[in-house]
Structures are given as C-alpha cells and as structure tokens.
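Kindly inspect both lines:
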Amino acid sequence: MKKASDLFIECLEEEGVEYIFGVPGEENLDFLDSLSRSKKIKLILTRHEQGAGFMAATYGRHTGKTGVCLATLGPGATNFVTAAAYAQLGGMPMMMITGQKPIKKSKQGRFQILDVVAMMGPITKYTHQMASSDNIPSRVREAFRLAEEEKPGAVHIELPEDIADEHTDSTPLKRSHSRRPNADVKSIREAVKALEEAKSPVLVIGAGANRTMTSRMLLQFIEKTGIPFLTTQLGKGVIDERHPKFLGCAALSAGDFVHRAVEASDCIVNLGHDVIEKPPFFMKQGGPTVIHVSSKTAEVDPVYFPDIEVIGDIANAVWQMKEDIVPNGGWKFDHMLAFRKAEVEHTAPLAADTRFPIFPPHLVQSIRDAMPDDGIICLDNGVYKIWFARGYTACKPNTVLLDNALATMGAGLPSAMMSAMVYPDRKVMAICGDGGFMMNSQEMETAVRLGLNLTVLILNDSSYGMIRWKQANMGFKDWGLTYGNPDFVKYAESYGAHGHRVESAAHLKELLAHTRDTPGVHLIDCPVDYSENDQILNIDIKKLSKEL
C-alpha cells in the first residue's frame, strides 16, 4: 500500500512530466512532500498562480505535452481561471491541480471553500474532484489524454487533503499510443478538383496548422503548386514568411492589403481554422469556394460555412492533396502578390522612421534585425501586437508567441520565461506594454532565481494603449486610460535583473544587441510613440489598399 499523493506523483512521472509550476498552500502539503522525493519532476515556485498557469500553458504550446501547475483551494484556484481560459482558447495542453479541505470530515465549516470543479467546468475540457485514491491512475490518464488530443486545452483535478493522505494499492497506467485518422480519399479528390478548376486559389494558414506541425508538408505543397498563402495571427511562422508566395498576416479585422488579396481569390483553402480567432475572411452566399482542412469539422458561423470539408490529420491531408493535384497553368496570382508588394512598400518608410519616442514600425524592424531566425518573441497583449503580427517576419513555427485567442494581458513575461527554459540555447524576448507587464511583473524574481537568459522589452506610453486606440477610432474623447509607472530600470535592478532605458533609435539598436548577447535577465524601458496608430492602422492602410 502506498500513500495516494505518492501515487499521484508516480502517475505524473509516467506521463513524462518535467515541471510543476505553482504556489502551494496548506491543502497541498501531502502532494508537496511526495513531490520533494521525485527524481524526475522539478517544482518551479512562482510568485502568482496566474504566472504558473501561463508557464504551464506555454510549455504545452511548445512541446505538445501537458504542462502542469499547482495551486491551493479557494483564492489559489480562482487565480488559475485566466490561465485556464488562456490554455483552453489557445489550444495549449495544461493540467491544473488544486487542493481542497477534507471532503469526508472537516472541522472548518465553509472557510475558503468554493465549488472549484463547477467553476472550472465552462473553461476546461475536463474537471474532476478525486473522491477515492484508487481512481487516481485512471483520472490522471484521462485528463492527460483529453488535454493533448486535438483541439488541446486545459484540464483540472482537485485533490482533497484527506484523499491525498489515503493509502492504496493502485499503480500508474501507461500512456496509450494513438494517431490522428487520415482524411477520406473522396474528400481529398473533391478538394483537389475545386482547386484545379479555380482561377486564383489561396491558402489561409490558421492556429490548427501551427499546433500540428504541418510546416514540411505545406511547404512541399506550395513549392509544387505555387499557390500563395497568408496566415492568421496564430498561424504565423508555419511557413517561413520570407517565402516569395507569402501574402501577409491577417492582423487587422478587415481592409488591410492582405484582406484585398483574399478578396481577389475564387477558392480559399482554410487550413487549421479555429473559430476562436478573428476571421481572416468573411464568407457570403455566392462568394469564393471555401475548402476547410482540419482535424475537426467546421463550426458554422454567419461568416463561415465552408463548401468542402477535408477532415483528418492536417499534414497528411496536405500531403494527399499534393500527391493528387495537377497544377493549373491558367492560375493567376499576380494581382494577389501585387497587394503584398504594396504592403511592403508602405511599411518600409515607416520602419525607417527613427523618431524618438520610438515609432512602432521601427521597433518591429529593429527587433527583427536583432533576433536570429530561431529567436522567440513572446508578446503580451496590446496595440503593438498588431504591428508585430503585420510587420515581424516569422521564420520558424512558434517563434512568435502571441495570444489571439483569449488575448489576455499579463502572459508575455511568463511565456518568455517558459520559452527560455524549454530552449536555453535560443534567444528569447518578452515584448510587453507597460500595462500588461505590471500585471505579472513579480515573476521577474522567478526569472532571476531560475537563472534564465531573456530580455523583457516594455513599450512605455503610460496608458492602456490598445483601448486608447479604439477610443480614438470610435470618436470618443481621450479619457480614463492613463496612469503613472515605476522607474522600470530601478524596478528591474531591485529584483537583481539588469535595467536599461532607451534614449534614441540608435541606442535601441545597441541595447537589443547587448541584451541579446549578455546572459541574465534584462529589462529595456522603451518609450513609444503611439500618436499615429489610428491614422495608419484605421485610415491610411484601408484607403491605400482599396485604391489598388
């Protein structure tokens, strides 16, 4: 007979868990004691449960394996809610383990007790309270299976104190081996026929194509057919964006150069569509043929009701289509590629603008110039995300971690910390607005304690810039969105990190090179000029692209 908490740790070891991120509480002490004896799993103590959850979710995003995080009951569990939604909407496999008071006999009334399982229900794929130690192996295995199967997401297990202290003769279950089924041959033939008969087909690469590692097959398909491609924000990097057939990233909702290119198509192949993202195009009756290629059937929406569905493993479906298709000598792509050329020409002078405070397009270009091809940038949430999605050239999958699903503030720093842990030999940068950074800035201490190498760049405009941009666009007066900031350089130094402040565009370039090549945790306070956001993103781009 062994203690239930020891069995739980053995089950996690059987699943290949490397880390548990979290803030333990009194109700986790049996679990913590068992974890202290594990030779395979490392505890990463964070300063807030939300940071732990974001780190676990990002581990899942990078590896495809379930990231695990730990919190106590009540307030610890409620602090997981945002991270759970982040993982669930973003398609990142994550398991949350929370403690609870004894469920068989408790002497503390309702102190700190919430129905955490009911709370987690709407924002997870699976949530379960352990009521018997004998069931731990099957419940843990089921939770991991569901977390990782397409579409991945968050799962939750509550381990009450008295169950953790039980004794049992149960043993861990082995992981099962499974593969996604292949798409039906007839659906492949139908899709290929529609492509061969089209005049100007286009590929749209979405979140699902990024999750399931389709890069190699997609590149072969594009090379054979010459069909151009664009990405959603969560599809960035699946194909190297320096490819001559790249049309851009659908960062704005509509009216950008890339949207005009899609509008010029009569057949859209939508790969890995995820309804969670803002639609990169809007369907209408009598419009272009839309082919949905994904592991799941399409969720029908007023702007999305595809004509042909190819359901199965995405990479295999693309391979089958590549093998079957005969490229059509009559396909025309020049008009689509002309929109991309116009976008590049519009961006170039903006990116060369060396004003101070720093102009966002120049910041994007400076960071792209400083980062190697496999360097990872982790964006928090703010208006700069649009500038980076449009203008930052992604060369490899999962090198631009932006959250276009929950789109929460506060995730940039923890996701960069996790990236630096998963890939210690790669350059990693968190890019945060001053608002988003302050939501989890305490994790700077965790980053320093772990001895990580990363740069945190803060775009400082002393306001909630994204909302301010929207406020201006809607014609409201500028009100209610500005605040004061700490001295970020001193703030970084107080944690034992290195603090830097940008003084000019040339100085930014120097700092980016210095922090990239110097070990340790660096923070760069970068004043930013957002004054033209509304004019460029809402007016100029739409006007110029329409004129084309």
